[in-house]
């Protein structure tokens, strides 16, 4: 079977937009309202001749008590079933307490984690992305899911990691 990449992160950081970029079509639901993706949704993807499955999730809500809401549960299941995890952070917001809690959860799973610093729409955003080294997950890969910036380089890393 194709290796599985789980896309996780807080609501509204651009996970579904990034999934659509990866797929090259609009299948994942993008919303300005946080928390629209409720369950795990799997899509077949292809990059450089490598097939893989990308799993979109609803992510972790700021106010989920102990991060144990049903949506967060689905995200944790997605991580458990994945071969690698793409953790998406909004570089324009920076690392929040929820992001840091997600990092702790990801460490426990021992899955390989790739850090995507999203919403880096132009050069100016690079500095904001660099701050995310503080999450301790290695190099933040800056991307703009909206405009496609950096997504090809990110996918090269994904394929190497899967
Ligand atoms: P999700 O909840 O993490 O799946 O986030 P969505 O993909 O639904 O996106 C939430 C909002 O962020 C939408 O209004 C998107 O258009 C916007 N967004 C996503 N990616 C980017 C990006 O790279 N740059 C900017 N400026 N906005 C983005
Ligand atoms: Mg979504």
Could you list some keywords that capture this structure?
single chain; 162 residues; alpha/beta; Rossmann fold; 6-stranded mixed beta sheet; 5 helices; binds guanosine-5'-diphosphate; binds magnesium ion; GTPase Der
Describe the structure.
The chain has a single domain, classed as 3-Layer(aba) Sandwich (Rossmann fold). 31% of the residues lie in helices and 21% in strands. The chain contains five helices and six strands; from the N terminus they run βαββαβαβαβα. It has helices spanning 15-23, 70-81, 97-109, 126-130, 151-161, and strands spanning 4-8, 41-47, 50-56, 84-90, 113-118, 141-142. The chain is globular. The relative contact order is 0.20. The model has no long low-confidence stretch (mean pLDDT 89). It binds guanosine-5'-diphosphate (GDP) and magnesium ion. Guanosine-5'-diphosphate binds next to α1. GTPase that plays an essential role in the late steps of ribosome biogenesis. Residues 3-162 form the EngA-type G domain. Associates with the 50S ribosomal subunit.
Secondary structure elements and pairings:
Blueprint: E1 4-8, H1 15-23, E2 41-47, E3 50-56, H2 70-81, E4 84-90, H3 97-109, E5 113-118, H4 126-130, E6 141-142, H5 151-161
Parallel strand pairs: 1-3, 1-4, 4-5, 5-6
Antiparallel strand pairs: 2-3
The protein binds guanosine-5'-diphosphate and magnesium ion.
